[in-house]
Amino acid sequence: MWHITKRELYDNLNSLRFALATVLLLGLMLTNAIVHLREHPKRVQNYHNADARHQNRLANHAEDSLYKLAEKGPGYLDKKPSDLRFCAEGGETFLPSNVEGGFGRWGKGGEPRLESFWILAYHSATPDLHNVRPNVTKVDWGFIIGYVLSLIALLFTFDSISHEREQGTLRLMFANSIPRHTVLIGKFLGALITINIPFTLAVLVNLLVISTSSDVHLGAEAWGRLGFIFFITLLYTSLFLALGLLVSARVQRSAVSLVILLLVWVTFVVFMPSTLVSIAGRSTPPKSALGFSERSAQLEEELGNEYYALRYDPDKSLTRIQILQVAGEYVIKDAAQQERLHEERLKQRISQVRRARTITQISPVTIFQHLLEAFAGTGFERHLQFLENVKSYAQQYREFIADTDQADPESLHISGVREGMSQKPVPPEAIPKFEDKLSLSKDFNTAAMELLLLTLFVVVLLSGAYLAFVRVEI
Amino acid sequence: MLTTLIRRELLDNLMTFRFAAAVFIILLLVVANTVVLIKDYEQRLASHHAAVKMHQRQLQEKKTYSAGTEKLVVDRTPNPLSIFNVGFDKQLGNEVGISHTFVPSLWDAGMHGSDNPFMDMFASIDIVFIFKVILSLLALIFAYDTLAGEYERGTLRLVLTSHVRRGHILLAKYISAMLCLLVPLLMSLLLSVILLTTTTFISLNTDDFLRIGGIIFTTVVYLSVFYLIGMLISVVTRRTSTALMLSMFVWGFLVLVYPNMILAVVSRPEAPQERSASAFNQIEQMWEEFDRDRKHFLATDALPGEDWHFKIMGSGWYGAYLWGNPGRLSYTYKSKMEVDTLSEKAEPRIPHAQNYFDFLGTEVVGTADRTWFIRKSALEDIFIQPANVERLYLKLSPVGLYDAATQAWAGTDLLGVRDFFDAARRHRQRVIDYFYDEEIFRSRQWFSSDKGAADWSNLPQFSFQRVDVNTNAKRALPDVCLLFMINVALFIVIFLIFIKSEV
Fold first, then answer.
1. Within A65-147, where are the H helices?
2. Which residue of B32, B109, B391 is in closest CB contact with A134?
3. What DSSP character marks residue B102?
4. Which SS3 state, helix, strand or coil, does residue B69 take?
5. What is residue A239's predicted lDDT score, i.e. its pLDDT?
């Protein structure tokens, strides 16, 4: 078997396709590295600036009073940019990079003066409506490997068996009583190694350029993730090699096998993802944006009227404490209601996107891209993790406010109104900080399903190739 | 002789597997995607109608003219030909305000919210994308072995022994292959046009059909370019396997790699910062001069005091501000008043207020128009020029030329979208003229609705007509001509090489 592998290797190394593949992959990976070095430092800088701004804001509020902290909330909570974004863009431009945790919705004069409390408002990423530049796809590893490398893999194996059959050398090989599975595995391994030579070279050049730059830093965890990504790439390449072998074994002429493979490639890799999404997107559109703001305003108004009815009830005269309690309850209830509305809308949107993403997993390219996103720490699933972090932090923040208030013996313990809460200034260091953490194990769990799916694809195609080859007439 | 050759080539090509595969795949992809794209268009149209209704309603709710001018919004209808090439149709803003206080442009546009902004993550494809990718691939698959295959099989030698001119051989191969490729192309386009015309909410007029014809013509020229590239590779390398490999890599490079890589490699041409800063300063100065004039008017009018609202407050509200956004070079002065009941004490001040608002209206319109000249050329230099340079880089590949030409035909290119903003500006002028004619600036309803609310029913209506097909053709012409010339150049090169080659 190793003999066959070596022979395949030498055959391929001397061919035109090997040279062209090397040139193409090197060029693409180099571009990827250069672009990343150009853009990433700016992103990280923006993130740090935004973070510093928000810390300042919190400190200012803390100096004022606990009520200010409770009213204005933690401000914008930023998503940490991923160091491995050059591996998978993940549609980051369409995902918001922060969540607003502070929202001045209304203020009411009167006694007591009321301000609306903060809620977690999930704004969508503002599309750049004034971008008149032409549209291009980002050249990330997902593009290079998902599209270009898969095409190259097909070009290496489309004629591996049919060409030999045409030339007559297949007959000679079988005359030597070599078992068929040995031939197949030998060819497969030969092609795998041949493709991985230029690919590994290109990847090494890319990583060299990126890691030796002073602006960008790749930590130990990043290297671990890159190892996983490399393994996934091997799996993905094997899929296409197996497909090439399968078609090559079944079909008599190389030209026909190429046409079939190219058309299959084009359908599954280029067209299926988008077409399936469009079909999936039509299933249940969530409530339109126009309805949402109107519903939100309606709820706000209803609750406000309720409050006014209670507060200025002509039949009862309320004590000061009761007034504060009614006011405080109103503010808290209003915030909770609006936050629930935002959550519902977010849940609907997320479920629609999840459905679309699941449907598109028929195409191996999407499976591969989702896996890359999971390990590179970008994309939709990462965004969902960020949202989870934000939610747990919001709870932490609220608990901190409640605890600090309880700790103050002078406070009336009525949250929602300035007079009812602790009047002492809060040391800024005591406020819990938002940390947007990712864990490799969590990413692995989300990716496990898709990894299994990809492996299943590879196994099916390899067995198909074996079955096809075993029954071939020479 | 030529017809015999063509017949031979045709029969050769029609009986192959690749022809059947080509027909099948093109039909499947085009028809499936047309259905999906039509549904998507339906949703966009529904969203557009809902937005128009909402804007109407919001306008009617305003009782005074000064509050209402903020709610004067025009919406851009989605372009039905965006099914062919979506271009900028979905990307740029589709609603813009036409208040008299500023001249609207692309950079002031908004977008009525989409249902789920997360769905923008998924790339969408249009019919031209299918052609870009598949037709070029199929053309190369048909072309790679035209001459190399005949070299290898030895049949070329046999053909040349009879009195056949080499040019005729090339021409015959070209014509027959183009006919074979045109069959699936035209069939699929016919089916999608039928689907388009049978949907109830899309109405296409003759101009639209002419545009679709332009797109079809451009597609044929694009197809021909790739076929000739394949033929060139075939004539240069004499073995089919080398020709095939080379063709595939050329396809991968031209279609996949070049469009996406070139803009990343070439650094973005930026207009210098000073241009933006100096333009904004000029605009700011003009508005501040206006503000001085305004305050001067208030100081020198018959009433003492300089309150722009003349203390005409009953129950209602008012606000005014001078505001600019340096990033988009926009600057404006807005003031509005919405009073529903007045006290009698305010009555003697009313005529002075009316004078002021008349003066204000004229001055604001004048300043807005003057600053527009500065803003327009600055926006061109800062935003449009770099984008055009980038587009030029893309056009170095036939794929970029094809994309640009079809966008121009469909009307979804940048110029096509800017036509909407030209129309919005013209409509604003009509509304301002209406205001002048009806003396609305100096009317009582400008700021108060106590003696009757503002009447919006006689306002000129906005209707956007896309430019006529001649303009589309003119915009597409340079790119189509370039594609055509590439065709001619390639054919000449192939001819020269083939003439000199040893068989």
1. 66-72, 141-143
2. B391
3. S
4. helix
5. 94
Q: Residue B116 — φ and ψ, nearest 5°?
A: -135, 95
CA distance A86 to A89: 7
CA distance linking residue A134 with residue B390, whole number of Å: 7
Q: Report pLDDT for B400.
A: 92
pLDDT tens-digit profile of B356-395?
Answer: 888 888 888 998 899 899 889 888 888 888 888 888 999 9
Q: Report, as ranges of residue numbers, the positions in chain A whose pLDDT lies below 50.
A: none
Helix H or strand E segment including A279: helix A272-281
Output the pTM of the full model.
0.87
Give dist(CA A77, CA A58) in Å, integer: 12
Number of other residues whose CB lies within 10 A of the CB of residue B346 = 17
* B217, two tokens: 């013509």
Where chain B has pLDDT below 70, the residues are 113-114, 269, 271, 305-306, 311-317
> How far is residue B36's CA from residue B124's CA, in Å, rounded to a whole number?
10
Contact B132, B402 (CB under 8 A): yes
Residue with tokens 């196994």: A459
Convert the pLDDT of each residue in B419-432 to its tens digit: 999 999 999 999 99
Sort out which chain A residues have CB atoms less than 8 A from B15's CB and list them: none
- Tracing tokens 């990462």 back to the chain, one arrives at A382
CB contact under 8 A, A255 and B145: yes
CB A69 within 8 A of CB A431: yes
| Cβ atoms of residues B47 and B112 within 8 Å | yes
Q: What pLDDT score was predicted for residue B168?
A: 87
CA A24 to chain centre: 27
Mutate to test the interface with A, among B131, B234, B245, B375 (most CBs of A within 10 A): B245
Length of chain B: 503
pLDDT of residue B315: 63
Which single residue is written with the structure tokens 């200034």? A425
- Alpha helices by DSSP H, listed for A159-271, are 162-167, 169-175, 180-211, 220-250, 254-265
Q: Which contiguous run of DSSP H or E holds residue A75?
A: strand A75-78
* Predicted-complex ipTM score: 0.85
B36–A278 C-beta distance less than 8 A: yes
Chain A residue at shortest CA distance from B16: A256
Determine contact, residues A333/A117, Cβ cutoff 8 Å: no
Least CB-CB distance to B256: which of A35, A147, A282? A147
Q: So what's the pLDDT on residue B312?
A: 67
Q: A36 - beta bridge partners?
A: none
Cβ neighbours of A282 in B, within 8 Å? 36, 39-40, 43
Q: Torsions phi, psi of A457, nearest 5?
A: -55, -50
| Interface contact B119-A131, CB threshold 8 A | no
Q: How distant is the Cα of B393 from the closest Cα of chain A, in angstroms?
A: 10
Non-local (6+) Cβ contacts of A398 within 8 A are none
Write down the residue that tokens 């063709």 correspond to.
Answer: B247
